[in-house]
Amino acid sequence: MTDLARGIRAWWIIGLLAAASAIVGIFTLPPIDRDESRYAQATAQMLETGNFVEINYLDEERNKKPVGIHWLQAAAVSLVSDAEDRQIWAYRLPSVLGALMAALACFWGGQRLVGREAAFAGAALFATTVLLGIEGGIAKTDAMLVGCTTLAMAALANARGGTSPGWRTALLFWVALGAGALIKGPVTPMVVGLTALVLMVWERKITWLKPVMVWWGPLLAALIVAPWLISIQIATEGGFLREALGDDLAPKLISADERHGGLPGYHLLLLPLVFFPATLFLIPGAGRVVAALRGEDDRLAASARFLIAWVVPTWLVFEILPTKLPHYVLPVYPALALAAGWGLVELAKAARWQRWASWVLYAIGVAAFAVFLPYVFVTYGNNASWDAIRLAGAGFESGFQLEFDMGAIFRVFAGLTLFLQLAVAALASDRMRPGVLALSFAVLSGFGWHVAARSGVFAESYAVRLADQVRSARAYSETITGLSPDEIVTASSFTEPSLAFSLGTDTMLGTAEEVLAFAESRDEPTMLVLDLSRLPGLAAVIQLHDRLDQAPSDLGWLVERGRNSPFLAPLSPSEITSTTALRAGWQDIVRALGICETRLLAAGTNYARGTDTELAIFFTGCPASNDLRLMTRPNTDLDSSAPTDQDTPNDPQD
């Protein structure tokens, strides 16, 4: 391992591992609901309007997080793409940079804490962990946040342990602190502040902070944040801080905000999965930290205290908070990875039970992925559902697949097989020949996970790519309405942010009633997307109409379906089964809106809500020359029995 950790080579290896793990999947995964698509859409609107102070999602203010990530995304898109292109990979590039910065900062700070070899091992493991790679490939704040936080902590470690840190260390510390605050508010200052406070109380010393406590440091951090903060407060008449603190942060502190709750121990329970593959050396690493704390070497004890102060108080804060998401504890993962690297380098000193415990922890992660990833692909690798099949029988041109693509099957299961082989090889080599070989296989298994999961299973899960299906359906608009896909406006009761980002800022999201009212108010052609999973009445009418033509004698089925339809519920069973009444009801539905008879279907799973979803896609205002029959809705509400948990276009952030 000494050769790998030597010179500039070590920096290149760690950087390449972090960048490669983050980049896997950024070109193939669709925009993810809900946070990523909201961030990306808000950035796109900044580029479209030229307003880089206010943060807006569609027609509403989004006063939740600071502007830093939006500026970075806007810069990336301006360099390599364009807001009109809606290429999500361009918005993800700052997160790749954040993951890269986090891994390199981990190596830099780790050299001062645990030595170069252990720091190299820890940073390499951290670079390929499941959680860092995932966040590094998503266009939101957390990868850049952990990059800024790790850089600040690395500067603090060098200021604490260095003989003459110099002004550059202080500069990096305060720049990272200010940048972290501009990315995600109080998180970076909280991690740094808790670490420093715990160390001061524990050691009863404050002099070690002197290298970074320069007079110009706080001023520099303030200059990074204050100009925008003042501007946004003026632009929103004080609304930004009021909403960010009162509506976004405060609910997370007092309750399980947005249904993201969990008992204390939530993050610990997820550790075998999201910290994979570094879990293979985590228990010996923890044992090494404890041994150093109890030992006679003051330098090693000081390093152990620093790692403990970095991890424990922040971890406890997030375990105690009622609102929980896996990425909340990501800023302490570099410290855990350095401990794991320390445990690997000095594995000979680990007790046998520690090695067995680590093997079990690692094996739990491998077993969980061996079950979970194939399940995801088999479940979501196509998007057929019985409702979709019935709607296809009702005349919809559907895009769902009833069979797997054999090429996709081969790619996915080849990736899964390679991942499992690398994981088993890492476990076997750690048992027989611990050291550089075990580290190499562990790191490769981490990278293999990203290839198998993000570039394979998740990318091929067509069932969850509803926004992509709608975007493909929009390609028909020129043939049907005479307007090109870029010109036609979409109104949708499917309100997930991925649709808004995919189709553009002029997309109208709302309830079914709002969508239909919007369409009626327009003279120009419009594409309508109706979420039938929330409109059982409309689906029933469509199916009833066509089923009657196919099997007019099946009266019991018609009556049962009719009772579930608000259009047909007022009718008696005899009226429901009347061909005239049924067809009149259907014609009333389609005539008032001027909907073209051509009907398209997108079907799959809305993973943000956890429900099977069928989207009926219509075009309105078709030219008479197209010789398409037109149709409309009655005066009654579209579906008074639809569920009341309709997502609004600007639902609270997950």
Layout of secondary structure:
Blueprint (H helix, E strand, L loop, with lengths): L6 H17 L11 H15 L6 E2 L2 E2 L6 H13 L7 H27 L1 H12 L2 H7 L5 H20 L5 H18 L2 H17 L12 H20 L3 H16 L11 H9 L7 H13 L3 H23 L12 H13 L6 H29 L5 H8 L3 E2 L7 H27 L3 H22 L8 H9 L2 H5 L7 E4 L4 H7 L4 E2 L2 H9 L5 E6 L4 H15 L4 H9 L9 H4 L2 H13 L3 E2 L3 E7 L4 E10 L9 E2 L23
Parallel strand pairs: 3-8, 4-5, 4-6
Antiparallel strand pairs: 1-2, 6-9, 7-10, 8-9
Brief synopsis:
61% of the residues lie in helices and 6% in strands. The chain has 654 residues and is mainly alpha-helical.
Q: Please, how many domains?
A: 3
Helix content bin: 55-70%
Largest sheet: 6 strands, mixed
Shape: globular
Strand order of the largest sheet: 3-8-9-6-4-5
Tell me the number of helical segments per DSSP (H or I, 4 or more residues long). Answer: 27
Number of DSSP E strands:
10
- Which consecutive residue ranges, at least 5 long each, have pLDDT under 50? 548-559, 561-568, 625-646, 648-654
Decide which structural class fits the backbone: mainly alpha
Q: In angstroms, what is the radius of gyration?
A: 28 Å
Residue-averaged pLDDT? 85
Report, as a whole number of angstroms, the end-to-end distance.
Answer: 41 Å
Q: Give the strand content.
A: 5-15%
